[in-house]
């Protein structure tokens, strides 16, 4: 595992750890849990939080890491089918379920790709996890293009040309999808994608968290960006030279 992939694993694991803690916060105070996680019964929140925390610890320590990644991928796939697929089916024109559901599927793909990367012979094309991660980028790209003015409103005011960057990022998502799925400059595309997500943690999300520290949605969005940056670097580590 190269340095970028190792960094990606740690970023992804830290994000899963934060999500796990959020589930316990929600179970105790009924607050602090935002998209992509759907608040539900207290017991379900505690169970999901336990899975996320244990998987994160295994990934960070390297003990039973591949087993933890596989279990996490399966749990996230089941979570999507039970919690998000019905919402998508009933709200096809609502961008909310598409965004949050795609984030869960992206995490599932990342966990699956990581399990392959931790195997003895990870370079077996085409890896399912990498493909699933790449396909979810299509949703993010299309949404940036469809809802450019809304996305531009989230971009910090000190950045010039906010609408341009909203559309540019949408095009970047689609370009990264093509590169990863075709294998053409896939390592470069995934590396740059990870850098883009990682920069958002500090440029976009951290200031919003500081300004609204009690808003669970802002915390979740920041850790989503961290998880996606880690996932992109895991995908880069899975690509052939």
Structural class: mainly alpha
Number of helices: 9
Quote the distance from N terminus to C terminus: 13 Å
Structurally, the number of domains stands at: 1
Q: How many extended strands? A: 0
Q: Beta-sheet strand percentage?
A: under 5%
Taken from the alpha-carbon principal axes, the silhouette is globular
The residue-averaged pLDDT reads 91
Query: What is the ordering of alpha helices and beta strands?
Result: HHHHHHHHH
Let me know the largest β-sheet: none
> Percentage of helical residues?
over 70%
* Radius of gyration over C-alpha positions, nearest whole angstrom: 17 Å
- Give unreliable regions as ranges: none
Question: If you had to describe this structure to a student in words, what would you say it looks like?
Answer:
The chain is an all-alpha fold and 241 residues long. It has one domain (3-238). The chain contains 9 helices and no strands. α1 packs antiparallel against α2 (42-61), α4 crosses α9 and α7 runs antiparallel to α8.
Helix-strand blueprint:
Blueprint: H1 3-29, H2 42-61, H3 65-90, H4 95-117, H5 128-146, H6 148-154, H7 162-182, H8 186-211, H9 216-238
Keywords:
241 residues; mainly alpha; single chain; 80% helix; 9 helices
Summarize the structure.
Helix content is 80%, strand content 0%. It is mainly α and 241 residues long.
